[in-house]
Amino acid sequence: MLLLQIFLFILGFVFLIYGGNLLVDGASSLAKNLRISDLVIGLTIVSFGTSAPELTVNILASIQNKSDITIGNVIGSNIANILLILGATAFLAPVSVKHSTIWKEIPFSMLAVIVFFIMANDQLFNNDGKNVISRSDGFLLVCFFIIFLAYAISLSRQSSEEQLVPAKYRIIISIVLIIVGSVGLTVGGEMVVDSGSKIARALGVSEAFIGFSLIALGTSLPELFTSIIAALKKNSDIAVGNVVGSNIFNILWILGVSAIIRPINYKFGYNVDLALLISISFLLFTFMFTGKKFHLHKVEGTSLLIAYVLYLLFLTLRG
Questions:
Q1: How far is CA 25 from the centre of its chain?
Q2: Max CA distance (Å), the chain
Q3: Tens-place pLDDT, residues 70-107
Q4: Distance CA 319, CA 313 (A)
Q5: Nearest CA to 274 among 250, 290, 256?
Q6: What proportion of the chain, given as a percentage, has pLDDT over 90?
């Protein structure tokens, strides 16, 4: 049984690699066909596709009333997106960041984290006896998400007059590639998470540890492969837009929908992880002005990767 789970775990990686490749090619080609910038595609279509595993896991966790997995998956995935994914991407190839991403999308993602912190800590702000992300909080998060989508649509209109490179594929083929890539990412992510969780439970680790580490890492693998592949293909706008967009999606859309399905209990101890997420979000913004402006380079990527290793060590010690 254990050998079967290990095989499925490895097979999931294969789906993730090929799914990420197809999704980037299809999304980039669709952007050219529709005269939409890679950044907008990264913030919307690619983010939707790569966030599908998080959404699936959280919906199932909410239905089964597993708050540890619901919270751990969102916070852990967002931490992995910044430290692991952007870190690995910048380590492999320099990542350029557009002006609008620095001054609009990244601050919007920081705002989403702060809103999450306020909503989750009823004991701090409302003197209530229990920290809960209620259904009304969930609806409010979804409303913020709709605002973000409206902003992304406005970006697509602004970019319609840009001079873009000719598309590699026709629209119908691009859409098929996006669909097949998204399915591959979802199937691969689910295989990695499901088999990985069974392996972890066989080793006797806690559900909270699984949520913050294994499941969060597993559901972030689509973003990891998509961003690395995009960066290597010189589509850094998709790489950065994918990570920033996914972080916004995870909090506003996925956490919002999860809370609407069932109010989410929030443990005060998770503020350590949430504080880290807030800190590294500000750190990402700061990196835009160090070294060569508006770029992430190997040194910065290495520091992010080291920070993620230290975070995993902290999770292991915490149990």
A1: 19
A2: 58
A3: 899 899 999 999 999 999 888 888 887 877 788 888 89
A4: 10
A5: 250
A6: 29
For 42, other C-beta atoms within 10 Å of its C-beta total 33
Predicted model pTM: 0.81
Q: Which residues make Cβ contacts (< 8 Å) with residue 67, sequence separation at least 6?
A: 61, 264, 265, 266
In order, the DSSP letters of the chain are -HHHHHHHHHHHHHHHHHHHHHHHHHHHHHHHHTT--HHHHIIIIIHHHHTHHHHHHHHHHHHTT-HHHHHHHHHHHHHHIIIIIIHHHHHHS-EE--HHIIIIIHHHHHHHHHHHHHHH-HHHHT--SS-EE-HHHHHHHHHHHHHHHHHHHHHHHHGGGS--PPPSS-HHHHHHHHHHHHHHHHHHHHHHHHHHHHHHHHTT--HHHIIIIIIHHHHHHHHHHHHHHHHHTT-HHHHHHHHHHHHHIIIIIIIHHHHHHS-EE--GGGHHHHHHHHHHHHHHHHHTTSSSTTEE-HHHHHHHHHHHHHHHHHHHHH-
